[in-house]
């Protein structure tokens, strides 16, 4: 996969460069490596594999949201799309078990909002802020 394709896919799903660096265990300067993979240097196979796995997760999540929107269209009901104000709220609400990083979740919800609009489904985006649990 060339750098432009790697970056286009990464950006399209809202996957942050730092998230890739952390997931791949690249250390303190790992984000700089990911930046190069997105610009000039062919990304290594393990990075491409990770990215494609995240694309699949994103696709499955978004497909589920779109199914709910289609159901709402069929039944004539409105839907709410939940957006978390920050990563801490997202992690608290999902206990870190969503399968997606916050940035990807937020990107998918934006795509779901666009899909709902284009499908003629009445919807509202709701911002949620949840205080982090005390240790």
TrEMBL record:
Name of the protein described by the UniProt record: Uncharacterized protein
One Pfam assignment: Aca2_YdiL
Matches recorded under Gene3D superfamilies: Putative cytoplasmic protein
InterPro entries, alphabetized: Aca2_YdiL-like, YdiL_sf
Source organism of this protein record: Jonesia denitrificans (strain ATCC 14870 / DSM 20603 / BCRC 15368 / CIP 55.134 / JCM 11481 / NBRC 15587 / NCTC 10816 / Prevot 55134)
Lineage, highest ranks first: Bacteria, Bacillati, Actinomycetota, Actinomycetes, Micrococcales
